């Protein structure tokens, strides 16, 4: 029968890194279930290979075959033949371009085994989709065009597969018909790949020469490659042993939902990520350390005595322990690390680069928390596996990074648990999935560092000066008049008896930030440091005037969130670029436009104007004194509240 599971267009990297391994869902099926993906460079024949598997296994219904035959005449790439790739390339855009864009999932079965296969795109711009498929797979079929050998995408996909915990690989050297079924070509590619993948630690690596178009060595042995004595692709897929050991690993239960329909029932629902749990077992809430025992386990149909990896259940505890969505239940004797600083491999998936110091949202399991990359330890070259220093990660780059979360979260190394060791980063402004991460280890920072509480607090210091402490943040292009206006505002406040301090970009770059340049990464770190200093001055009870270009909204928002509500006033000094360049008080615009100054905001580096500042001062037609008076009117109203 031709049973198919449709194209899951909604699945994305976030769902993939948080998802489970269905081979463990209640135990394997009688014939065994294998989840695998096909990957490699564009036009290596991934979709055709899956179509051939379905076709040769007689798993295509007659009406589907008739539709594909019709579509082959319209979109096909193999002349009058049926284009088997169209069985998988379901999107109209894919059919028109002859490429795979989305991740297409198909279910099929043979007498020996059941399969779920993910056909992933080969284009570099869709690498994030490939990571989606890889995160839920046990085996990777990595295709290689026999005419081209190993390409960058072949190496990139192999690297990602290794990082995402895939330990079984088939190197499918496709299109052997186009090289005359030459054994020397096959042997050379296998030697190159074996050398490249030597450090990945794959448990099995089998190379198969094949022609997906004509079916050679896909499901039946090819007489045109009598020199090959290994298994066909299907034989390898049917026979490979990928039995997960998730059930033998320590028990982990990420809580998805606190189930409380009435006052008499309180349970915690979710899917067992690894291990087993039984009624009566002792468990601990990893983050809080509170312990209890399992009183009941409720399955989909009735109560049960135990649950194992992959099962969706509701667990009731014997004690009234505080448990929330995102918490993890674990054995008291084998807990995950609970940390706010950790090292991880990071695959960057966003068009905007990853910059250390910038805040993102991290989802690990069912828990969301702000996080930032504190440093990039190295970037990995996907072609050579060499490690090199980096100040940023661009789209599709892979780095090994240190991260700091806003709260302590329970984590396992990804190599030990793919569910509690995986996370995604989300852009806080666009809500785009920005990166996928695999935890390497917790950073054991000093545990004797605590937030000190003083006998004299911010309110007491502010009361001494009879004022409300806050930050007045001036942002705008170079030459907009920020510093001039800030100076006049501070002078007026001083005359009124206000206790103030001004932080100016140029001044801080002579001291605190003298080690920073003007790259995007340095600009982010510059504002992060300024924000921390401004917070200390506000804690001292002062009115702090900050005059910085601060070109990125994310960093201005980060400083705002350091302060209490009402303590951050953003003043957008809105002066057109042409006027700033005309003034050119330091002669910088002329040099930037001549190319002698790099990374100059407004010319060769972007400026993101505020979207909803507390105050916008359009300086055209205003004197500096008039602009300062507009700020003072707004500020006095804020100080009076």
How large is the count of helical segments?
A: 16
The overall pLDDT, averaged over residues, is 84
State the name of the first-level CATH class of the largest domain.
Alpha Beta
Annotated CATH topology of the largest domain: Rossmann fold
How many DSSP-defined strands? Answer: 27
Q: Between the first and last Cα atoms, what is the distance in angstroms?
A: 73 Å
Largest sheet: 6 strands, mixed
Taken from the alpha-carbon principal axes, the silhouette is flat
In percent, how helical is the residue content? Answer: 25-40%
Class by alpha and beta content: alpha/beta
| Number of structural domains | 4
Topology:
Layout: H1 13-18, E1 33-40, H2 46-56, H3 62-75, H4 92-97, E2 104-109, E3 114-119, H5 127-135, E4 139-145, H6 152-163, E5 168-174, H7 183-196, E6 204-209, H8 233-239, E7 253-262, E8 265-271, E9 276-278, E10 282-285, E11 291-298, E12 303-304, E13 306-308, E14 312-317, E15 328-330, E16 337-348, E17 359-364, E18 367-380, E19 387-388, E20 398-411, E21 422-426, E22 433-442, H9 458-465, E23 470-475, H10 482-495, E24 500-504, H11 505-508, H12 520-539, E25 543-547, H13 553-562, E26 568-574, H14 577-583, H15 588-593, E27 615-618, H16 624-640
Parallel strand pairs: 1-3, 1-4, 4-5, 5-6, 23-25, 23-26, 24-25, 26-27
Antiparallel strand pairs: 2-3, 7-8, 7-15, 8-14, 9-13, 10-11, 10-15, 11-12, 11-14, 16-20, 16-22, 17-18, 17-21, 18-19, 18-20, 21-22
